[in-house]
From TrEMBL:
UniProt name for this protein: KCNKD protein
The encoding gene: Kcnk13
Domain Potassium channel positions: 68-139, 189-274
Coiled-coil annotated residue ranges, if any: 33-60
Family, as annotated: Belongs to the two pore domain potassium channel (TC 1.A.1.8) family.
GO molecular function: metal ion binding; outward rectifier potassium channel activity; potassium ion leak channel activity
Domain of life assignment: Eukaryota
PANTHER family in alphabetical order: POTASSIUM CHANNEL SUBFAMILY K MEMBER 13, POTASSIUM CHANNEL, SUBFAMILY K
Organism this protein belongs to: Corythaixoides concolor (Grey go-away-bird)
Length: 398
C-alpha cells in the first residue's frame, strides 16, 4: 500500500545519501589529504627550528601553544579584531545562532552562557524556520503569479484566450489554464539565478573590504547562505572598516536575502530529488512486475484482459504516486491479471470513489481541473506543503 511505497522511498533515499556521502568523502580525501600532510610537515620543521633557536624544550612550547588555543576559543587572536561580546558582537553571534549558520568564531565559554544558549536557540531557531517558511510561501506566490500572467499573455497572443480575460469554451488550452501551475524546473531556475545574483553582488562587496579573493568571497557566500557555516572565513570581524556602519548593514541584508533564497532553492531541489526517486522506484517496480508476471501467467489459468476495465491515468515523474502493488504494476504493463487481482483492484477503486464522493459532499478538498498538472508540487510536509498549497491557490481563476 501507500505505507510500503513511502518506506521504499525512504530506504532508497537513505541508501543514495550514504552513497553520496561516501563519494564525497573519497573526493575530499583525495584532494585535501596531501595538502594536510604537507602543512603538518612544514609545521613540525618550524617547531623544531624554533625550539633549537631559542633553546626551549618541545614540552614547554607545546604547553604554551595549548594555552593560546584556549585563548583562541575565548576570542583572542594575534591580530586585532572586533570585540566578540560587546553588544554588536553579541548581536552578530545570536544572528548566527537563530539562522543556524553557526560560524563558530564566537562560542559561550561560561556554564551560564551555554545553558542559556540551549533554551535561546531552541526558540530562536524554531521562529526563524517559521520565518523562512513564510518567506518561501510569499516567494512562491509571486513566482507563480508572474509565470501564470506570462502564460496567459502567450495564450492571448495565440488567440486562444480573449483579450478581455474571459475564457471561451471548447479549447483545451483554456480549460487547462484553470489548474495550471508553474513547472518546478522553472521555479528552480529562477531561484538559482536569484541566488547567483545575490552571491555575485555580495562577493563584489566582500572582495575589496575584507581583502579576500573573489573566489573566496563566493565560497563564503555559499557556506554562509546555505547555513553550513564552517567559520574559516567570517565577514565583518575586523576592528575597523571604511564606512563601517554601511558595510555592516549591507552584510546583514545580503546574508538575510541569501539565506532566504538558498533555503527556498533547497526545498525546490528536494522536490526534484523526490521526483527522481519516484521515477527510479517506478522503473524498478516495472522490471520486477514483468518478471513476476511471466511466472504468474504460466501458473494461473483463470485470467482476464484488463484492457476494458483499466482506468486511463497519465503517469509521469511529476506525480508522487508509485505502483503500490504487483496488481498496479501488471495493470500498467498492459498484460493479463488474475481474477483475484481483478476483483481486488475493483474493490480499491470503489473505496477511492466513495472517498471522493464524501469529500465532494463536504466541500473539500479544493476542486481542480481534471487535466491539471501537479508538476511535482503535490504532497509534502512543512515547506513542501506550503509550496503546494500556495501554488494551488494561485492556480484558481482570477
Amino acid at each position: 500500500g501507500r505505507l510500503n511505497a513511502d518506506n521504499a522511498r525512504f530506504l532508497l533515499l537513505a541508501v543514495l545519501i550514504v552513497l553520496y556521502m561516501l563519494c564525497g568523502a573519497a573526493v575530499f580525501s583525495a584532494i585535501e589529504l596531501p595538502t594536510e600532510r604537507e602543512a603538518k610537515e612544514r609545521w613540525e620543521e618550524r617547531l623544531e627550528n624554533f625550539t633549537r633557536r631559542h633553546n626551549l624544550s618541545r614540552a614547554e612550547l607545546r604547553h604554551f601553544l595549548r594555552e593560546y588555543e584556549a585563548a583562541s576559543v575565548a576570542g583572542i587572536r594575534v591580530d586585532d579584531i572586533r570585540p566578540r561580546w560587546d553588544f554588536t558582537g553579541a548581536f552578530y553571534f545570536v544572528g548566527t545562532v537563530v539562522s543556524t549558520i553557526g560560524f563558530g568564531m564566537t562560542t559561550p565559554a561560561t556554564v551560564g552562557g551555554k545553558i542559556f544558549l540551549i533554551f535561546y536557540g531552541l526558540i530562536g531557531c524554531a521562529g526563524t524556520i517559521l520565518f523562512f517558511n513564510l518567506f518561501l510561501e510569499r516567494l512562491i506566490t509571486v513566482i507563480a503569479y508572474v509565470m501564470k500572467s506570462c502564460h496567459e499573455r502567450q495564450l492571448r497572443r495565440k488567440g486562444v484566450l480573449p483579450h478581455n480575460g474571459r475564457r471561451g469554451s471548447g479549447t483545451s488550452e483554456v480549460d487547462s489554464l484553470a489548474g495550471w501551475k508553474p513547472s518546478v524546473y522553472y521555479v528552480m531556475l529562477i531561484l538559482c539565478v536569484a541566488s547567483l545574483i545575490i552571491s555575485c553582488c555580495a562577493s563584489a562587496m566582500y572582495t575589496p573590504i575584507e581583502g579576500w579573493s573573489y573566489f573566496d568571497s563566493l565560497y563564503f557566500c555559499f557556506v554562509a547562505f546555505s547555513t553550513i557555516g564552517f567559520g574559516d572565513l567570517v565577514s565583518s570581524q575586523n576592528i575597523k572598516y571604511e564606512s563601517q556602519g554601511l558595510y555592516r548593514f549591507g552584510n546583514f541584508v545580503f546574508i538575510l536575502m541569501g539565506v532566504c533564497c538558498i533555503y527556498s532553492l533547497f526545498n525546490v531541489i528536494s522536490i526534484v530529488i523526490k521526483q527522481s526517486i519516484n521515477w527510479i522506484l517506478k522503473k524498478l517496480d516495472c522490471r520486477c512486475c514483468h518478471t513476476c508476471q511471466r511466472k504468474l501467467f504460466r501458473s494461473r489459468r483463470n485470467v482476464v484482459m484488463p484492457g476494458n476495465v483499466r482506468s486511463r491515468r497519465n503517469i509521469s515523474i511529476e506525480t508522487d504516486v508509485v505502483n503500490e502493488s504487483d496488481t498496479d504494476g501488471r495493470r500498467l504493463s498492459g498484460e493479463m491479471i488474475s481474477m483475484k487481482d481483478f476483483l481486488a483492484s475493483n474493490k480499491v477503486s470503489l473505496a477511492i470513489m466513495q472517498k471522493q464522493l464524501s469529500e465532494t459532499a463536504n466541500g473539500y478538498p479544493r476542486q481542480m481541473s481534471s487535466n491539471s498538472k501537479q508538476n511535482g508540487f503535490s504532497g509534502g510536509v512543512g515547506a513542501l506543503a506550503i509550496m503546494n498549497n500556495r501554488l494551488a491557490e494561485t492556480s484558481v481563476d482570477r
